[in-house]
UniProtKB/TrEMBL annotation:
It comes from the Bacteria. Belongs to the UPF0065 (bug) family. Signal peptide: none annotated. Keywords: Receptor. This is Tripartite-type tricarboxylate transporter receptor subunit TctC. It comes from Variovorax guangxiensis.
Amino acid sequence: MGFGGGSSPDFVARVLAEPLAKALGQPVIVENRPGASGNIAADIVAKSSDRHTVGILINGNMTIAKVLNPSISYDPQKDLMPLSIICTAPLVLAAAPEVAKTDARGFLDAARAAGNKWSYGTPGIGTIGHLGMELLKARTGIGAVHVPYQGNPQVITALGGGQLQLALLPPGLAEPQVKAGKLRAIGVTSARRSALVPDYPSLQEAGLKGFELEIWTAAAAPASLPAPIARRLNEVLAEIIRSPEVQQKLFQHGYEAVGISGEALLHRVKADTAALAQIIASQGIKLE
């Protein structure tokens, strides 16, 4: 697992560990190997040969890691075997209240009219918030300028202070600020409204047909893992993820449980990689 204790991927891994151990009849140990946005752990998983190592990884580790950083020593599509998406969440297009005085369509019109006078914040170059906003800009003609911060808490502070006008935020961070009146929610990036924030419209409702982008956490194994073991792991994970207890825990942490086949995850990896790689290339995005 590529992030430290208390992170969302760490939480997901620990929710799964106990029921997975019971189902497999052997201990399951959560090992945190943080660094390089989770790519250190993904590299360890890719090169593992013990047939017992499973990675809990995020979007970027399984999609555009190699596109953003050609020097990393694993290739997500060649060296990792997708097992299942565990959970997903949309991003919330959030805005400072003073610039969000209309509905979603009106807000997008105002953002286009503002050109480069508006700015958006992210937790850094190459994050899903950054790439998602660049994808949104490409689809809408918005010209907002990117301002990277150390993390989303700093982005929220800057939005509240008027230094930024918009950002894409996880629902768990955006909703309390919206309820407090410190931010306005324009819409979510999922294909339809999310059960996590059911009152927020999807951006597709605002006319952005086909626009879909989610945060997801998945299980993956080394590509060398024998197919029968991979099938068994997928079956066990799907059963665990479908359990009401696990679904409730994930929901309370700001995620919707999924649990899909390895083949479906592979399709998602390829689709997301293609969409985000195109944005990276067209906008000339590079890690600094």
